[in-house]
Write a structure and sequence with these properties.
Two copies of one chain form a homodimer. With 220 residues, the first copy, chain A, is of the alpha/beta class. Chain A contains six helices and eleven strands. Chain A has helices at 35-47, 55-60, 71-82, 90-99, 136-147, 158-166, and strands spanning 5-12, 16-18, 83-89, 109-113, 121-122, 128-132, 151-156, 172-178, 186-187, 197-206, 211-219.
Chain lengths: 220, 220
């Protein structure tokens, strides 16, 4: 049986998944202390606050030993374990190429939607990034092939996720709704084709830190 | 002991509390069948879908006998029963003046923030609307006085709620998060002073229809 196509992101209560353009975040080293970059990081950390203490997350990103082992941790682990391949946009890859540890955290094939022609980028630990030049459907087809009976995760960023949503290619998604307001930034659903996309609630699971909301996507 | 100041609204997953300007909704009778008004109504109904079948809601708005009696219904009832007085903006009042039944659904004093000077508007069943001409703080003070030890509800609309949020006058709020995407419309938190407002999760309660999320508001 083929797996599902899903995404999983942290979102502020007012609908943002990042403080604003990621350009600030992928600033060169010498800008890391600039006030705008610091502010970006502070907001980002607040949005993602629930995930950083989780044991599985910390181990997978080589952030250190220990961590929380409650339901939030299980959800991080389950999301990882269901994923047989990931798809991401070029900007998220560019960000990750600088930010991931040597042993990138996917441990599966990753398909990058890009105009750039480039040989596969192989990392220790089983992550191999393939660069796909002919669109989101081809990238998804290749990811499906690589994932076998596991699921395909559309990893991000927001613009890439939205393309898959509007193309009717997402089966379900999970949002970790964070108790924070951004006021401005990058909205997950900005430009969603609301006339086409219907949602069906699958599961809502509050933890101490966030509310994990899962919806199935249906066509209207 | 003085009560709390709260608001309680239904919000789409992408952060909207109404399809767009309410002008379409308060259209004159002859426009009720116009396609734009029909579309507005359809979206509005979808957002509020969880509340219409609830027994307490139906009884209170004289929509008829019977209805659901599960947790959603209890939440509607609890919200009503905690409310000793309401505050609303002028546009919401204008809307309600046309839409409420003769016996308006508040059964308490209501304070309308408006520039219009007008005598109190008394309805059968205990709803009396007072028109307050000197700002949101005065309206709230009067509502607090009228509410006794019960809570004050900032009833709406969105712009009025946001003024109270940004003035630091809200103690807590509840959102019925509906499984629907709007794509456009009136955002609850558009213009929120994110540098000032911090949220603390109080309760998250999923039902069959929506997820009821309650947050306390703190100053940063």
């Amino acid at each position: 049986m083929a797996g599902k196509v899903f995404f999983s992101v942290s979102m502020s209560l007012d609908g943002f998944i990042a403080p604003e353009s990621m350009e600030g975040f992928i600033a060169p080293e010498e800008r890391r202390d600039a006030p705008d970059v610091q502010r970006w990081m502070a907001q980002w950390m607040e949005l993602q606050q629930w995930i950083f203490p989780q044991r599985f997350f910390r181990e997978n990103l080589k952030l250190g030993e220990g961590g929380e082992e409650g339901r939030d941790n299980e959800i991080v682990r389950e999301t990882f374990e269901r994923t047989g391949a990931s798809v991401m946009g070029k900007r998220m890859f560019d960000l990750g190429e600088k930010a991931w540890p040597e042993e990138a955290p996917f441990h599966t094939p990753v398909f990058v939607v890009t105009h750039e022609k480039r040989d596969p980028w192989e990392r220790p630990g089983g992550t191999t990034c393939h660069f796909v030049n002919d669109g989101i459907e081809t990238a998804l087809d290749q990811a499906r092939g690589a994932a076998g009976d596991r699921d395909v995760r559309i990893a991000g960023g927001g613009a890439t996720i939205l393309k898959y949503v509007n193309a009717g290619l997402i089966d379900e998604f999970t949002i970790a709704l964070s108790p924070v307001l951004f006021g401005s930034g990058i909205r997950l659903f900005e430009g969603v084709d609301a006339g086409r996309v219907a949602l069906e609630p699958v599961r809502a699971e509050p933890t101490q830190r966030v509310t994990h909301l899962t919806y199935a996507v249906r066509e209207r």
